[in-house]
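KxDL motif-containing protein 1
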Amino acid sequence: MEMEHTEKEKEPVMAASEELSREVKTLVSAQDLHSLKQLQLTILGRLQDSNAVLSHFNDFSENCFAEISGDISRNTRILKSMKSDLDYIFLKLRSMKSKLSATYPDAFPDDSVSEVIDRRPDLEMPK
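Predicted structure tokens:
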């Protein structure tokens, strides 16, 4: 009995939706619909072309990165080693300068004895 009740309720809804569909069709001309469909197909084609180009570029980039990733990691290790070596050298130079200025106060002009500001950029800190 419930099944019959829902079927009877669906009939007016179906008729109303068909009528609405017919009315909407009269609002837009067939030529406009055809034009919209052609534009959608053109856009779809362009998007598919763009997708293909991007996929090709991604593959190319992946291959290039695979070729140079070893060099990049090796150079990174070298640069980190060089930085630690330079830090050590500057630390030793500061220590030697402070010892020299304590032993020979006249060895350096007054402005060089004052606190030296390290103006080297910190390459490990992101900007």
